[in-house]
Design goal:
The chain is an alpha/beta fold and about 300 residues long. It has nine helices and twelve strands. Helix 1 links the parallel strand 1 and strand 2. Helix 7 packs across helix 9. The protein is globular. The mean pLDDT is about 95. Bound molecules: NADP nicotinamide-adenine-dinucleotide phosphate (NAP). NADP nicotinamide-adenine-dinucleotide phosphate binds next to helix 1 and strand 4.
């Protein structure tokens, strides 16, 4: 029986991976209460005990702003732990699937970023995620790293759910309109991961780094406006109308961690590798809202 060892099972993505990976084998889904991945010996022991055919790591230190004052913790979870997972995967001949972020880039490129583009993280979180990518590559295990952006889904905390909550509470909102990217659902990420892992087990995909996000692009303001518009059409009782969401520049909404202005990722490599079409970001936003709003 194929065992797939999943870390971060209670996160946005981990939750969906539990569903999407189930047809590939027996999924051993671990959350922080099972194993703290910041403890290398406990992490190694868990992997050795499971003897998995694949390790899928959806666990991460994702509090981007908090990380600015908590660099050691972010580094341990986002860089050291993936390196340990990769060493154990190498020793056991297992695949390692891991996730990274658009925040490894500085956002100054005009077009979408390719896997070969120079990284230059602006934040502690971005640096720690980049170091995780490098640690995995250095360990020499068979691996797939998916860099994604602006993750949302019905399970866990995210921008979509925050906007929906604020739209119920407020009549007016200001949202930045000078940063662009592709909102990507945890469902899409999990489903493509399952396709990729099936291909990996059948040696039909090259290991390495892949960009993976929904098609299309928007600003945070465009995203918020779409969420409120669709939520209203689905019958949600909201105080906020889409036209009362005011566009503002980043400077008017300062945060501890700088973010890239351009978060667009070129996903041609994964589309070609798996012969897949990636749906427009609006498609999964509508689905998530329907799940959240309709009884
Ligand atoms: N969210 C985004 O917008 C975004 C964008 C680009 C890339 N990504 C990447 O996508 C992946 C999945 O992100 P996500 O949005 O699903 O994150 P998430 O919802 O924050 O889930 C992360 C999970 O990791 C767990 N975790 C953190 N530290 C741990 C530790 N020391 N030991 C064990 N578990 C630990 C968390 O548990 P607790 O709840 O107990 O802390 C949480 O369940 C990550 O690699 C992230 O960097 C996310």
């Amino acid at each position: 029986m194929t065992t797939i060892l999943l870390f971060g099972a209670d996160g946005q993505l981990g939750w969906e991976l539990q569903r999407a990976l189930a047809p590939l084998g027996s999924v051993q889904a671990l959350s922080r209460s099972d194993v703290d991945i910041a403890e290398p010996e406990a992490l190694r022991a868990a992997i050795r005990a499971a003897m998995p055919r694949a390790i899928v790591n959806a666990a991460a230190y994702t509090a981007v702003d908090k990380a600015e004052a908590d660099a050691a913790a972010a580094q341990t979870v986002n860089a050291l732990a993936p390196g340990v997972m990769a060493e154990e995967a190498k020793a056991q001949g297992a695949w390692l699937v891991h996730y990274s972020t658009d925040y490894v880039f500085d956002g100054t490129k005009l077009g979408p970023y390719a896997e070969t583009d120079q990284t230059r993280p602006l934040s502690v979180y971005g640096r720690s995620k980049r170091e995780g990518e490098l640690a995995i590559a250095a360990a020499g295990a068979s691996h797939l790293i998916f860099r994604t952006s602006w993750v949302f889904g019905p399970h866990g905390g995210n921008f979509l759910k925050t906007i929906l909550r604020l739209a119920r509470e407020r009549e007016e909102l200001a949202v930045i309109d000078d940063k662009i990217g592709a909102p990507t659902s945890s469902e899409l990420l999990a489903d493509v991961t399952a396709h990729a892992l099936a291909a990996a087990f059948g040696t039909r995909i090259d290991g390495g780094l892949y960009h993976l996000c929904a098609a299309g692009e928007t600003s945070w303001h465009g995203y918020a406006s779409f969420v409120v518009d669709v939520a209203r059409k689905l019958g949600a009782e909201l105080k906020l109308a889409p036209e009362r969401i005011n566009p503002i520049p980043t400077e008017q909404y300062p945060l501890p961690a700088p973010r890239p202005r351009n978060s667009r990722l070129d996903c041609g490599r994964i589309r070609r590798a798996l012969d897949l079409d990636l749906p427009d970001w609006r498609w999964h936003v509508r689905r998530s809202l329907a799940e959240l709003i309709r009884p």
